[in-house]
Specification:
It is a single chain. The chain is an all-alpha fold and 189 residues long. The protein has one domain. Strands 1-2 form a two-stranded antiparallel ribbon. It is elongated and about 70 Å long.
Length: 189
C-alpha cells in the first residue's frame, strides 16, 4: 500500500482549521462582541471578525477537500477489498456534505446580517427586541448553525480517527478475510 502523507496532512490540517476556527469564533468571538459597549457596535465587531475568518476558512476547506479526495483515491483498493472501509468513506462524505452545506448557509446568513449597518444585537446570534424581524430571523438561524458546523466537522474528525484504526494490519487482515468470506458465500449460492 502506497503512502498518502501529503493527502493525509492536507485532510487533517484543513479539517482541524475548519473545526477549530469555527468553534473558536462561535465560543469566543460571538460572545466577545458584548465588549463593544453598545448594541449597535456589537454586530459590527462580530461581523468584522467573521469576515476576516472567511477567506482562511475557505482555504482550510479547500485544503481539506483536496486532501480527502487524495485519500479517497488512494484508498480505492482498500474500499474494494476490506470490509467496512467503503461504509466509513460514505459516512465521512455524508458528514462533509452536511458540513459544507451548513457552512455555506451560515455564510449566506452572516453576509445578510453583515450588510446592515447599526444592527442592534445582543450577540452575533441573539437579536435585541429592536432588531428588524428579517435580521432577527437570520440571527436565530445562525444561532443553530454556529454549533452545527463544529459538531459536523468534529464528527468528521472522529470518523478520520476510526479510518486510521482501520489501517492497522490486524484490521486490514480481518476486513479482508470478512470480505473474502462474503464473496465465497455468494459463489456458493
Amino acid at each position: 500500500m502506497a503512502r498518502n502523507t501529503l493527502s493525509r496532512a492536507m485532510n487533517d490540517v484543513g479539517l482541524a482549521a475548519w473545526f477549530g476556527g469555527t468553534l473558536a469564533n462561535t465560543v469566543a468571538l460571538n460572545q466577545a462582541g458584548h465588549e463593544a459597549g453598545h448594541a449597535k457596535n456589537t454586530a459590527d465587531v462580530i461581523n468584522a471578525g467573521w469576515d476576516r475568518w472567511t477567506p482562511l476558512n475557505a482555504a482550510a476547506i479547500g485544503v481539506h477537500l483536496a486532501g480527502s479526495t487524495g485519500l479517497l483515491i488512494g484508498n480505492m483498493p482498500r474500499m474494494r477489498a476490506q470490509r467496512g472501509v467503503a461504509t466509513m468513506a460514505a459516512t465521512k462524505t455524508s458528514l462533509m456534505m452536511a458540513a459544507l452545506g451548513a457552512t455555506a448557509y451560515s455564510r449566506m446568513l452572516g453576509k445578510k446580517v453583515s450588510k446592515i449597518d447599526d444592527v442592534p444585537v445582543d450577540s452575533a446570534a441573539d437579536p435585541e427586541s429592536s432588531t428588524s424581524p428579517d435580521i432577527a430571523k437570520a440571527q436565530r438561524q445562525l444561532s443553530m448553525l454556529q454549533w452545527a458546523v463544529p459538531a459536523l466537522t468534529g464528527a468528521m474528525l472522529v470518523v478520520d480517527a476510526f479510518a486510521g484504526e482501520q489501517q492497522r494490519a490486524s484490521e486490514v487482515r480481518r476486513g479482508f478475510m470478512e470480505r473474502l468470506g462474503e464473496k465465497a458465500s455468494t459463489l456458493r449460492r
